[in-house]
Amino acid sequence: MSHTRTYIKSGLLFLFLLFLPILLFAEGEAESADDISSSTIYAAYAGQKSIIPSLFASTEEVAAIVTFATDYPVTVPSVTVKEGAPSFTPDDISAAKEADMVFWEGSENFMAQLVTAEGIQEKNIRTIQTELTPLSLKENVDRLAAFFGTQDIASERMDTIEILFDQMRSAVSELSKDERTVIVHYSHQAFAEAIGFTVAAVIGPAAPPEEEIESISSLEFSLIIDDAHAPLTLPFVNDSSRYVKLESFHDSLITLITGNGALLGILD
Q1: Among the residues of 31-175, which ranges form H helices?
Q2: Which end of the chain is more exposed for a tag (fewer CB within 10 A), N or C?
Q3: What does the alpha-carbon distance between residue 47 and residue 50 come to, in Å, rounded to a whole number?
């Protein structure tokens, strides 16, 4: 009787071992290719593998924030306009299609057309806000750093950003009320307010009509803040106000902020 039980147990063990590889294979097949790909990429971002992700961004502004938070290189397209429509190089299209992640602000029409035309999956697209304020930068940087596992780099760099903004706020606070009153290009409004300037009027995104020019020109302001690449405030330039053109983007966020602070005369 004991021999019989032994044979039965041996037989059951043999059958289990025989079918185990088949069961494991079936379970593996049930996991989709997308799931495998996503888990592999996420493991790499979290520092479990030493690979560099392929990243693509719509503009230099977006790319600078991603690189600031992750220290990873980011591809930016060379967009040209032909007959009113955006045109991408074959290399740009290939880079966007093959990227592990695509970043944009969410309102760039040329990127929307690229995403649609090339069938880039929504799960691989992330939105980045490009306002140069400590709060906006921290929200973006913290989110990116948590996803890519680069919190140490991001935290150290955000400390530098906070110091720079504290220095600029301190310098602006020492100005008189009149000296702190500005009119500003819309793309630099958030930055100006974050460092303590009082915004009397915001210009843009469209060029101001004649009646608006007359109305704003009658206001009291001592500083005009324009954009170096798409100026809009030239109609308001006068002998009694200082005119400054700030940069919108740079490879280095810290260089961008310190440079603009220097142009405003509030950073050495």
Answers
A1: 33-45, 60-70, 90-98, 109-118, 134-148, 151-173
A2: N
A3: 7
